[in-house]
Amino acid sequence: MNKYTHLSIAEDEFDFHNKGILTELDIRDMAHDFLWQAYQRHLYKVRIITGKGLHSSEGPVIKPILQQYIPTLPFVKQVITAKYNEGGSGALDIILEQNN
User: Fold this and answer.
1) How large is the greatest C-alpha to C-alpha distance in the chain, in angstroms?
2) Do the beta carbons of residue 63 and residue 19 sit within 8 Å?
3) How many whole angstroms from its chain centre is CA 41?
4) In this structure, which of 42, 56, 89, 100 has its CB flanked by the most CB atoms within 10 Å?
């Protein structure tokens, strides 16, 4: 492992699968709690698995909510769709600000 591994691999992840029926507030709260804890742990890159929305009658629900919400958090630097082999359109990679 080289010294830059943590820059490319998610150091922790949160999966929204099997969380039941969630409101928009539930989704935001769960994401906020996970990201805040990751920030407090000085993590650099984390992943949120949103799913692709294949089982939702109206398509993806969680990912669009998070794509709007997460960038507004002051401790988030960047939000990107995960690489194809790491969840692709069903996951978001979040780069956190450095908490020194």
Assistant:
1) 44
2) no
3) 16
4) 89
Architecture, CATH, for domain 5-75+85-96: 2-Layer Sandwich (3.30)
**In the chain, domain spans:** 5-75+85-96
Measured from the Cβ of residue 16, the count of other Cβ atoms closer than 10 Å reads: 21
Tens digits of per-residue pLDDT, 42-89? 999 999 999 876 666 676 789 999 999 999 999 999 999 988 777 777
- 4 token code pair: 């830059």
Contact 10, 93 (CB under 8 A): yes
Angle between helices 24-40 and 62-69 (to 10 degrees): 50
